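Quick one from the shared queue. A colleague (R.T.) flagged CopG family transcriptional regulator as missing a structural entry in our internal table.

Convert sequence to structure tokens.
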Amino acid sequence: MANPRKKRKVTVYLDPTVEKALVEFADRRDRSQSMIAEAAIASFLSPDDAERREAIIARRLDQLDRRMTRVERDVGIAVETLAVFIRFWLATTPALPEPAANAAKAKVGERYEGFIAALGRRLAQGPKLRQEVSEDVNLSEKGEEL
């Protein structure tokens, strides 16, 4: 009678890419392919492992949800900032007389390039507007002067 504690041989068919990955992993870890396959199958069949994976996925989804909420907030701040600026600019900037308007049109490209360069520098190094807004709002809520 066969010993019930003795391991049994099982034949499986693997996709060539999976087999190659198994061989390479076993070589890197200096372990047998059988040991790695057994551990992988045990892990796959373990209900605790499934619960652990489910918890990890839930945690990652929560992180994604928080990030998405921050992105929505940041986009909202950007849209409101742009709207306030445009409203302010339109309310305070008088129309230019004809000779000055022609000169301004000639400088549009140069000024736009300067704006893009300044924006690039700001995005690359400076504090982000959302950080400044958060700090300003927190100070205002505490009743402190800005």
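Residues 96-146 form one domain.
The chain has a mean pLDDT of 82.
Added to the table.
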